[in-house]
Amino acid sequence: MTSNSKEARPGLAHGAREFAGTMFTAFYGEFTPHPWRAPDTDRDAYLLFYGRSVAMRWLRDDGPAGLWGMNDAGQEHPLADASLAAWFQVEAESVPGDRPLPVQPFLSCAGDAVARIGSLALDVEQVLLPVQCLDTASRPETLRSPSLLTAACFDDSDLSARHDVATPLLFTASRV
């Protein structure tokens, strides 16, 4: 037992930030690199995502924690489908019980990085989130699900701009 009442764990240095888990996204579709980008530039998906994260203060290497810690990113993977345009992986900082995972900033940052590299006709976006880390029992009842009182915000939209979304749910079992 350490002096701050937290048990020491392998891989976590004393005083280190605690992470909720891994957030991952991958973009698939027809990707065309911008013609003005130098083919040998070092400003790859990782550096563009990292730079955007730091600029928005979503990623902090020092001082108060940001929303996540950088893990990895790229435009290729040996096990991926040929239509992979880019993928991003971060470690989400722990979130208080009344706050959501930072999914919207994460996806915004990933989308901005892809847009800096080229043009993507998106077919599929894969998103993996560490929902097992969320303590929903400690949340007030009103925060456990989106409010139906705000559903009307979707009424005033262009019907032709709507997209079908398929959300496969993968269930896993864990032993406690």
Secondary structure elements and pairings:
Layout: E1 19-33, H1 45-55, E2 68-74, E3 84-93, H2 103-117, E4 118-128
Antiparallel strand pairs: 1-3, 1-4, 2-3
Helix pairs in contact: 1-2
What does this structure look like?
The chain is built from two helices and four strands, in the order βαββαβ. The protein is α+β, with helices and mostly antiparallel strands and 176 residues long. It has one domain: 2-Layer Sandwich (Alpha-Beta Plaits), CATH 3.30.70. The protein has a four-stranded antiparallel β-sheet with strand order 2-3-1-4, covered by helices on one side. Helix 1 crosses helix 2. The longest helix has 15 residues. The N terminus is likely disordered.
Q: Determine the CATH topology.
A: Alpha-Beta Plaits
Q: Globular, elongated, flat, extended or rod-shaped: what is the shape?
A: globular
Number of domains: 1
Number of helices: 2
Tally of DSSP β-strands:
4
The level 1 CATH classification is: Alpha Beta
Major β-sheet profile: 4 strands, antiparallel
Instruction: Pick out the low-confidence regions.
Output: 1-5, 8-13
Give the helices and strands as they follow along the chain: EHEEHE
CA-to-CA gap between the ends?
22 Å
- Order the strands across the largest sheet as they lie in space: 2-3-1-4
What structural class do you assign from the helix and strand content? alpha+beta
CATH architecture: 2-Layer Sandwich
Helix share bin: 10-25%
Mean pLDDT across all amino acids: 79
Our estimate of the beta-strand percent is: 15-25%
Radius of gyration: 19 Å
